[in-house]
Design a protein that fits this description.
By secondary structure, the protein is an all-alpha fold. It has a domain of about 110 residues: Tetratricopeptide repeat domain (Serine Threonine Protein Phosphatase 5, Tetratricopeptide repeat). The protein is about 80% helix and about 0% strand.
Amino acid sequence: MKKYSYLFFALLLTFTACKNSELVRPGDPINVSYQKGMNQFESGDYNKAAEIFEVVTRSGRGTNFAKDAQYYLAESYFNARRYILAAAEYERFSNYYPQDERRQEVDYKHALSVYEQSPRYRLDQTQTRKAIELFQLYISKYPNSEFISEASDRITELRSKLARKIFESAEFYARTDMFKAATIYYDQVIDQYPESKWTELALVKKIETFVRYADNSIVERQEERYGEAIAAYETFVQLFPNSEYRQQVEDLRDQAERGQNQAISILADQSGDGTNQ
């Protein structure tokens, strides 16, 4: 029994020694601390690696160990999907070490970290806009980068999200018969995000909304509002001549033309009645 107790105690000491060797202890040389961080990073324990690299960046200021620790601190947070912290540490690396050969990669990872914080389209899109700005800045600074195509794709994706948010706002106003507000928001999609997939549908909805707007207007405003629907139709066929919505918008155009002609006729009759009196 005593033999097994000694064996257990020896194993416990070995385990504790190994565990302690993984941690940064007071008095550890900076190179030893840094290596412990790298051991954790390479083993995939990114949270523990981040803790160690954080210590190295503070205690080794002015050394190459601190610079490399700053890089791997950001990388650790990124790999752990802690993107808010990763973005902050990548930005700090760029500010502290602007001439480092890893700067181009770091700037891209900074943009990616903010991109990963972009929420669903219904929520506040501050981070989406910030990510777009960072990717655009990256493309401007590094036009020959291997990540240019990927950065462009990310921008397209994020801009589509912004377009959808505005489009859904327009849809809300259209559903609640707030026609003027709806057309303003559809126009924002068309004007601000013309390359987006939402532009085509926004134009369809704009035509439809102006027709409904005119249908629900006093006769004195109908000619103008049906005319807006017809003008939007003409824009649509120029931009999307082969659209799957072509028949739908032509039907709406016909409806608008009939409504406009009828409004003109009614106003002419009213004018004639006034003259005869």
